[in-house]
Design goal:
single chain; Rossmann fold; Jelly Rolls
Length: 490
């Protein structure tokens, strides 16, 4: 059920009602098995990561009580939040009653001790979405840039529009500021999606990860908000075997925080780093493009869920196939925590162009290319070589890059956007020849994805290159891959 809530500003927000109660306990063990967490926990034992030290945000739509009080914050007194500091915004006082049942449900899945995969999160900033859009953080309507923050992951378990009509300058402005935050501060946004046709916030942003539950029977393309925020990009990106989009948002935000923590804790996984506006050193393994790519590449396209409905016929029907290699209903597929974790911990592996020996990549891993596009000294193509053994298997590739929002200076935000077009192609190597096997060539999206069955005892190459009409440029991308051996008929 979707209910509309009026905020103080002209922002119109819709929030989902999450069914918690006994269903949460019953679904817990099944959910963890369905997304690969039980396998990961069994294999890692006491080395299991818990996202310790990763600061996060939870942004919620408000709900008016009978007494006229707007509730939006998780219940600080809930047993699942013992030992955690949940504050009103960043650096504010602890949240206070009355609390939001919806926020509590999302929070338990995001950073709770029992239901999340990131129980080590201790610092949580809680925002009412109206305040988050305003001077408290995003500074919509101001000339200044959004506030500087130490946070690394934020959950948005709501959908909405900043105006009565979706095609409005306010919606466009919000998306530009959010996309800039992802690229500049490496603040990973997990946004809920319910298939609504008139609510572009925040799923229509380029650099976010939009999520729904596996059983959602609605999907849509992004809306046409202007020359940069174009129509036709499929949503959601990922699905989760939980009961609602809100619950799924909390689940994926928890996994994102876990992966960020893993990438930050082990610098040896990365070949480089950047620094955000807060002065935090961000290693390549924890960058937003890599986290998103690892989640997409690691997703399951065939499921046997015990906690909900299954994926049916992933990309089997041509009408469900997107130009960037996803399924309109399920995006990249269903969340698999263990696969994404294995991709990240396999470490960064350079393309042949950036590797002195031009060596081969392993069956899992990622790469972040800081300078690509052919402008100046940047590469115009990136080649990744690998081989199969005596048994073939299934390969998943996910290429992700961000839209470039200029940003300007701290006192004058510049919303100018540049969209780049990249393609990804898979070849079999036969002597000196490359035989085309699969390709992903969307002109609208900022991800390309390939899923393909590989034969045994073969040499392969996947290549990243600019789209046919893309002029030279200099920008970065992240790519992740996951190969699982299995019997494959040639």
């Amino acid at each position: 059920m979707i209910c509309r809530v009026q905020g103080r500003s002209r922002l119109r927000i819709y929030s989902w009602t999450v069914v918690l109660l006994a269903a949460c306990t019953a679904a817990r063990a099944d959910y963890f098995a369905d997304v690969g967490y039980d396998t990961m926990r069994e294999e890692l034992g006491t080395s299991l990561p818990v996202a310790a030290g990763v600061p996060v945000m939870i942004v919620e739509a408000g709900k008016m009580t009978d007494a006229g009080v707007v509730t939006y914050a998780p219940d600080q007194l809930n047993a699942g939040f013992r030992g955690k500091k949940i504050t009103v915004g960043e650096g504010g006082p602890r949240v206070y009653a009355p609390f939001s049942g919806h926020a509590t449900g999302v929070g338990r899945r995001f950073f709770g001790l029992q239901l999340s995969v990131s129980p080590g999160i201790e610092q949580i900033s809680s925002y009412l979405v109206d305040n988050w859009f305003g001077s408290a953080f995003l500074r919509l309507g101001e000339v200044r840039q959004p506030k500087v923050s130490s946070h690394r992951v934020v959950s948005h378990a709501w959908v909405g529009s900043a105006a009565k009509v979706a095609i409005d300058q306010a919606n466009d402005s919000i998306l530009r500021r959010v996309d800039w935050l992802v690229e500049t501060d490496e603040l990973f946004h997990v946004v809920g999606f319910n298939g609504g046709n008139k609510v572009p916030l925040l799923a229509d942003a380029f650099n976010v990860l939009s999520v729904a539950h596996t059983g959602l029977d609605r999907h849509r393309n992004t809306l046409a908000l202007g020359k940069d925020y174009i129509a036709g990009r499929a949503r959601p990106h990922l699905v989760v075997p939980d009961k609602t989009p809100s619950a799924s948002t909390g689940r994926v935000a928890s996994v994102a925080a876990l992966l960020v923590g893993v990438g930050h804790a082990d610098p040896s996984l990365s070949h480089g780093s950047t620094t955000n506006r807060n002065g935090d050193k961000i290693y390549n393994a924890e960058r937003a493009e890599i986290i998103k790519a690892a989640l997409l590449a690691g997703a399951d396209r065939v499921t046997r869920n015990t906690s909900g409905v299954d994926i049916e016929g992933y990309r089997a029907d041509g009408s469900n196939r997107t130009a960037n290699g996803l399924d309109r209903r399920y995006g990249a597929g269903q969340l698999n925590i263990n696969n994404s974790y294995r991709i990240l911990t396999a470490g960064e592996q350079d393309s042949a162009e950036d590797h002195a020996s031009g060596g081969q990549i392993g069956p899992a891993g990622f790469d972040h290319d800081e300078s690509f596009g052919g402008l100046g000294d940047s590469n115009r193509q990136a080649t990744y070589r690998f081989s199969t053994g005596s048994v073939g298997g299934y390969l998943a590739l996910a290429l992700v890059w961000n839209i470039d929002i200029q940003g300007g200076g701290s006192l004058a935000f510049d919303p100018t956007a540049t969209r780049y077009d990249l393609d990804m192609l898979l070849y079999e190597v036969s002597g000196d020849d490359l035989i085309s096997m699969a390709e992903s060539r969307s002109r609208r999206d900022n991800s390309e994805n390939i899923h393909f069955l590989l034969a045994p005892e073969r040499d392969y190459v996947f290549r990243i290159q600019p789209g046919a009409r893309q002029e030279v440029f200099d920008w970065d991308y992240g790519v992740a891959w996951w190969f699982v051996e299995g019997n494959v008929v040639e």
